[in-house]
Amino acid sequence: MTLVRYEVARDVAVITVDNPPVNALSPGVPGGIIEGLGQANSDQSISAIVLIGEGRGFIAGADIRYFSKPWPEGEPRLGGVIKGIETSSKPVVAAIHGHALGGGLELAMCCHYRVIVPGARVGQPEVKLGIPPGAGGTQRLPRLAGVKAALDMIVSGDPVTAQQSVSLGICDQLVEKDLLDGALEFASEVGQAGGPHQLARDRNVVVEASNLFEAKRKQIERRARGMRTPYACIECVEAAVELPFDEGLAREREIFEVCVASDESKAMRHVFFAQRAAGKIPGVSKSIEPRQFGSAGVVGAGTMGGGITMNFANAGIPVTVVEQDAALLDKGLSIIQKNYATTVAKGRLTQESMDKRLALITGSTMLDELADADIVIEAIYEEMPVKKELFGRLDKCTKATAVLTSNTSYLDVNEIAESVPKRKGNVLGTHFFSPANVMRLLEVVRTDTVDETVLMSVLNLGRKMGKLPIVSGVCHGFIGNRMLEGYFGEAAIMVEEGAEPEHIDRVMYEFGMAMGPLAVSDLAGLDIGWAKRKAAGNGVATDIPGSFVPNRLCEMGRYGQKTNRGYYLYEKGSRAPVPDPEVKDFAEQAARKFGIGPRDFDDREILERCLYPLINIGAAILEEGIALRASDIDLVYLNGYGFPVWRGGPMHWAGVIGLDVVAAGVRQYSRKSDLGHWKLSGVLENLADDGKTFEDYDKENQ
């Protein structure tokens, strides 16, 4: 396959990169561009050169696979292309459509000119891979767009629109017609006009304010907690201001090389490839054509139902939300409207878009209004008999082809599917995370009987909603919540053994978690777990290790933030946790009851006892086939549970510290506890014995 084509149109040479799907700068592409540049510069009839991408976009950037494996010997690299463009005797015009990201934008900025079509975007997203731009992006972008805009783009990794790129000075012209025609016209004009054709490297850097760098560091403190790369990006842009261009390039490269070899970058690149793999379902034919859902229904207008309803409207799908009580329905619709209004007030949505989305939402108190819906999502409370009764009613009032899904967090979706035997091929689980209109994660729970086309259609719907859908098999709690029981369970047990809640939460916060487990328990509400324990004990919440203290707290009406008291105290109007000596009293009572005695804890034990159960249960989930791959488990925890992205997820992190270390720790703690999450998984044990990682497991089992 020819990755780069060379053609001539009038007096302009056209170099086209054709490396689907995204025109990455893979081996062969740089060499092809260099060859085309040489051919154009040796042709006296050529006055200018257009560099353009075939297919969906210009050039997406570097081929990330080669960050961790050697580049083919003798193959030209991006640096050779940049040199070829900047030493070209004829102006080079980058013609941008779709996207020019990372190395793609760096390549475009080396060109003498850039033209772009409306709808295209340009950006430097490398920070999301744990690296700064490494081919001059941090040196050229400030010279084109100014330091402030360059800092914003490079440190956030977020792209800008075509219109913004022109107003900032990144691109020279917006092409409102066919891109190639417009680029040829522009190139011919500048080529025939003669020089000089100024390069980005020869421009002066405009610094809008003296405190830009200090202000940016302060701005990102919270978001970049624990990370190195955002600060490395700032240092690179500082070099553009403080050093001559070539010295700035050298400094950028020096910082890049350190970052690309770091655990942080390896973790974030793991996440990138994990997201690519998540949509691949082994054993399901690639030829399946997903159904398109033209209308939808949601049963339940509470917090979850309202958020799911918004997801349908956001995807442009008409949706009817049904609530049994008119007052509850009105309340739910009002909250939906307020949520949209808040987004408009923050400038993230136009009033026109809000009005269009609200127009797609219809409220009703009658299930019969769902008769024509292509898909219905149930979002009522977590009681199996109630859910099965509802599915029976939906089976009678919806059309035979309608897909029915449950938004359950824990329950057996196979049992729900079997309750409607005639349509069990159209039943599965869709576990949204709260708030459903905000959280990106969606666990799609694959029942034993679901039709493959239905499964792929719901996955496609999730992506249309802007979600990251992850397939899970059926088990109690699916992937995320099943693993979470060991994490929260050990935190609660350690409190009863003498660890202070604030100590446990500090260790996990410093590890990178968004919140510690006990603060999260207070946020979610301690009464939720208490209700489950009472249901399991015929109305009595049994006192077992890990439940004694929360049982006492709930008996006192201390449910967490909602009552201003839980594991912590909360001042009215504040979410800041304040340690409470009374919790220590309850912990001492638990220690006496279970004969464990209060003792001191170090940070290491707290970290291990919180995270090793996550990994061990995750390995068991793999062993049982509940998760398709370890990287899916990582995505669940990164997108649904506040696990730090720069750690790569619990399964990836386990490989960083060594699965042999984790397995040894699980064995050690299992000698002191007979709880199920300390029973060593066979998959973890075997991988540890063989010196392998969960990435190795994924490669061997796909």
TrEMBL record:
InterPro entries: 3-OHacyl-CoA_DH_NAD-bd (IPR006176), 3HC_DH_C (IPR006108), 6-PGluconate_DH-like_C_sf (IPR008927), ClpP/crotonase-like_dom_sf (IPR029045), Enoyl-CoA_hyd/isom_CS (IPR018376), Enoyl-CoA_hydra/iso (IPR001753), NAD(P)-bd_dom_sf (IPR036291). Keywords: Fatty acid metabolism, Isomerase, Lipid metabolism, Lyase, Multifunctional enzyme, NAD, Oxidoreductase, Peroxisome. Residues 296-472 form the 3-hydroxyacyl-CoA dehydrogenase NAD binding domain. The keyword Oxidoreductase applies. GO terms for molecular function: enoyl-CoA hydratase activity; isomerase activity; NAD+ binding; oxidoreductase activity, acting on the CH-OH group of donors, NAD or NADP as acceptor. SUPFAM superfamilies: 6-phosphogluconate dehydrogenase C-terminal domain-like, ClpP/crotonase, NAD(P)-binding Rossmann-fold domains. Residues 477-570, 606-692 form the 3-hydroxyacyl-CoA dehydrogenase C-terminal domain. GO terms for biological process: fatty acid beta-oxidation. Its main location: other. One of its GO terms (cellular component) is peroxisome. Pathway: Lipid metabolism; fatty acid beta-oxidation. It is found in: Peroxisome. The keyword Lyase applies. In the N-terminal section; belongs to the enoyl-CoA hydratase/isomerase family. PANTHER family: 3-HYDROXYACYL-COA DEHYROGENASE. This is Uncharacterized protein. It comes from marine metagenome. The lineage of its organism: unclassified sequences, metagenomes, ecological metagenomes.
